[in-house]
Amino acid sequence: MGNRKKARSRLDLFQNIVITLLTVSAVMLFAATQISSLSQGSSLLNRWFSASSSPAAAAAEETAVPLSAPVRTAVSGTYGRYGGVTLSSDSEEFIPLATRLGEALGSARSFLSCESQDLIDALTRPSIFYDFWEALPLSVLAELLSLPDLPAAIASTNARQLVISASDNGTVQLLLWDGSNTYLRCDTAITAGDLEDTISRYELGGAYFAFDYAENNEAFRQVFPRSLFLNPLPQLPLLSVSNSLTDTDAVLTRLGFNPYTNSRYMESGGAEVVTEGDQSVRLLPEGVIRYQSSSKAGLFIDAASEIPTLWEAVSGVSDLLNSLLSGRAGDAALYLQRVHQTGSATVLRFGYQAGGVPIRFADGTCAAEVVLSGTAVSSLTLCFRQYTAGEETSLLLPLKQAIAIAAQQEGKEMFIAYTDNGADTTSAAWLLE
Amino acid sequence: MQSSRLKNIIILILVLVNLFLLVSLFSRFSARQEARAQTTTQLTELFAANGMTLSPDAVSFQAPPAGGTLPRDTAQDRQMASLLLGAGLSYSDQGGGIWSYDSTDGAAVFRSGGSFDAAVHVGADKEAESLCRSICRQFHYEELTFQRENEHFTASAVRTFNNCPVYNCTVSFSWDEGTLSVSGTFLPDTFAAAAGEDSLSAVSALSSFLSAQRELGSVVSSITDIYSCYEVQATSAASMTLVPAWCIRTDIGLYYVNCYTGAVTHA
After folding, report:
1. pTM higher than 0.80
2. CB A29 to CB B25 under 8 A?
3. What is the ipTM of this complex?
4. Looking at residues A27-45, what average pLDDT do you find?
């Protein structure tokens, strides 16, 4: 009897062990089959998940357009120049040049005054030229280009054109022009070898400045000396233009208004006016909105303190404008034209650019103007436009004819840009400024 | 007795379940192997139809390595400078991501994109050679090859990362008349992997390579190997980004296929 009990308990133990082992084995085999099917079907899962992402997330992705700056560049070596007039600060081709500019600005300590001729002399040596179209504070430029921190001493300096140039004594200098009458220069920690290394990456010979031919050609002598020309002329697409203010309710909602409010009426001129407390917005038929607020309960931008830094103002306002445009600018994007701060007031202006080429409005206005009072938006004007690049190429006047016309207005800068005069297409053309 | 019979039934069920799962796993495995063999055959036939011999052993089904960014680490720059320049090292931040290092034995400059230059006084060529090997060993540069000529030598090596070569990240040494010149790209070890980027498989990379060869008018006649590697790039978001790539070894040299864009470049 005792032996039978012992045998039964041994059998029981053996059965328990076998059951445990088989259960563990089954679980592991099941996990292995699931992992195997997951790894084969992972691309399907990814596609399913990405397709079912929420509309809010999709909308957030659509409106999160990082601000970039259009930039013209010229890389000059011993035997010629390379030119780029369709670059922007987020172009891949611009990255090596942005790196050198970051090194130059980061290692600049203090600027000394110089003359416009010094800038031209710098361009006759191995050099890199940058033209950001508008004079912007270096602190804002550094953020736009994702450059390392700037020395505080130079952060508030305005710059429109910058040149990194090898000097005769073997050092590399940075020279800048603020777009009006100020020329500055300083030494940098870049070596002549580093500069040559960057220059050697570009195929030289297709670009020149007006001053390169000024000695032998009267017409080139008349135009602004640092007007940049490419040979052959760039191939820029024709843009179709349309008013992209189609969903006014969505715009009103983004501005913090109730689109179903009773305080919404049409003026005799065709403008739609919506008021809410101390805020009002006018929606003009030509696709322009004008927002005003005199209260503290309105639109705000994020900032660390009551008065935003220049970059906080720029990034906050550009995010706001892009959320209003909601991806409806087509092949164009906003770029910063001007930022100015006095006390607690900050004024910002933006324009449109397509493929690194600015789009000017024929009436001289800008695409957007925003005034901040501290972090509150006290006024906002935005022109809704959609620009779409077509298959056709803009027909540019041959340079010879263009410069002959330009020479009649002495000292003006010649450049290629688009002009929006309200028509449904715009072509790149020579402009004078 | 009753419980014993119940347990026997449970054991039988578990055995059947295990057998079923084993067969299922085995059939998936063999189906995958068959699919891979079929893919290899079709690929070799496709290449043969375009006048190129693709070695079946060359077709890889490994996943490419993950890409990511390499945040600048000046402490690691300093370690490299210390090994190069020896004791008594002094350094200064020039701004713009440029750091300069000095000692009684020489000087070095390290930049934000990883590029660096150094010049070190090293009297004997054996000592210089030993320094080159130490640098390569400590900082993961491999395939160090020397070319000797009279009283001087040159050498070069390729940086590896996670056992994959970074094909455009090299270090070059030149020793002449007691001075060792070192230049190249230095990568920190810290790595922030990129979130969920779709990377090309080796098979897709071979297809991209074939398309590129068709467009350019191919002169390649045989492909002997394909292996994963990295390319270091500067982007607007980060000064050093590692992008996975496939290196295709052919009879006329190496080609690289970017795993994100499919772009093909010739070494």
Report:
1. yes
2. yes
3. 0.77
4. 74
